[in-house]
Every structure is written in C-alpha cells, then in structure tokens.
Amino acid sequence: MQISGKTFVVTGGRSGLGAATATMLEAEGATVVVADLPEVDVTDEESVRSLVESCDELHGVVNCAGIGGGARVIGFPLDQFRRIVEVNLIGTFNVIRHAAEKIAAGQPDAEGTRGVIVNTASNAAFDGQIGQAAYTASKAGVAGMTLPIARDLGKFGIRVVTIAPGPADTPMLSKLRDDIRESLESQIPFPKRLGRPEDFAALVKHIVENEYLNGEVIRLDGALRMGPR
Fold first, then answer.
1. Is residue 10 over pLDDT 90?
2. CA 158 to chain CA centroid, nearest Å
3. What backbone phi and psi angles, to 5 degrees, belong to 95?
4. Closest CA to 142 of 95, 93, 100
5. CB under 8 Å to 37, separation ≥6 — which residues?
6. At residue 91, does pLDDT exceed 90?
7. Which residue has the higher pLDDT, 116 or 167?
8. Residue 183 above 90 pLDDT?
9. 212 is catalytic
10. Per the confidence metrics, is the pTM higher than 0.70?
11. In the Cβ-directed half-sphere of 34, how many Cα atoms lie within 13 Å?
12. N or C: fewer beta carbons within 10 Å in the chain?
C-alpha cells in the first residue's frame, strides 16, 4: 500500500516511537491523526470512537500508546498489574476494533487492500525479565492476538502486523541510570546501542508498503535475548 495520500492514526504519537512514526508518515505524504493523552485515552471506548469517526477516511493505524512499570510478584499491587494490561493490551484492541470498522468501510485498491494495522509489542513478550510480569503479559497478549486478528480482518483487505522492539532510546527509558543503560547496550550483539525511534519508523514504512507482510510479529532488537535480570 502506498503511503502518500492515505490517512493514518498513530496512538502515542507525541513522543518516542509514535512521534517518529508520525513524522515519517507525514514526510511520505500521509495525513496523520495523532491520538494521545489527554485528548484521547486508548482505554476509553467513546474517546477512541470519536477520534476514528472524526476521520473522513482511514487507511492505517499504528498502535504505539503504552506504559511500563514493574515489581516483584510478592507484593505486586494488583491495580498496577491491571493498569498495565489495560493500557497496553486492552487499549490496543480497543483501537483496532474501532479502526478496523472504519477501514473496512473504505474502497479497496487494485490489490484488494483497504488498510493496515501495525501494533507494538516488545521483546519482553518473549524474554520477560524479573519484575516484568505485567508488562510481559500485556505485550505477549499483543503478539498473540496478531494472527487471529489478521485472519479475521483479511476478508476486508486489512493486514495486521506487530513489531516487537527491544529497549529503545525513548522517554520510557530516559530515566535509566547510566550503568543500567550501558549494561543493556553491552548485551546487544549488534549494533551495540539502544534502538532508535527512527529504526521503528523505518520498519513501519516497510510493513505498510509490503503487501505480503501479514499476521507476523517482527522482532526489532539487534538480536538481543534478555537475561533474567
């Protein structure tokens, strides 16, 4: 699918991976609708519905809205666990279901494509560390629902792909101590650096343009496999 002339919603589009993606899409000639707090809460049905309905047409969604947070299992506040899953997993699905309805109502192109949905999981979905039970559960859920949703929406000409990035140089990790950052970088086989938002945006561009990518979870982590801690 060509990006130019299309309309995309980018959740979490004011910072980090979302901001880089929105910038890339606009540079490629797309109209970008940024969905971010406080105007749009991905966990709120009416908030998301209103945003989607405000679009004259919709061809794609990139779900980048998410939160972190961790704690050991013993003494883990249940409200904190619930909130992480609600934003990262339920919020992603809430956006998908409203956006898919809008995209499905559009006209297909010559290939039968109406649009594409790109979600954000994490390498933690596969290599969750100690203290990441809630975050890992939420991102594993995003990865796990990719294929069934792609199969469901295929009849409408809508593709669904998920990116599972490793640690990225974004505001979510900006508070890391220097020694923790250096430890993370040292574990990455190559290149030995944190991911950059532009790396993520470049992969989004390829996913949108490559018609045969569908139902897949793509790791973007420099071959990093996280240890227990």
1. yes
2. 16
3. -65, -45
4. 93
5. none
6. yes
7. 116
8. no
9. no
10. yes
11. 19
12. C
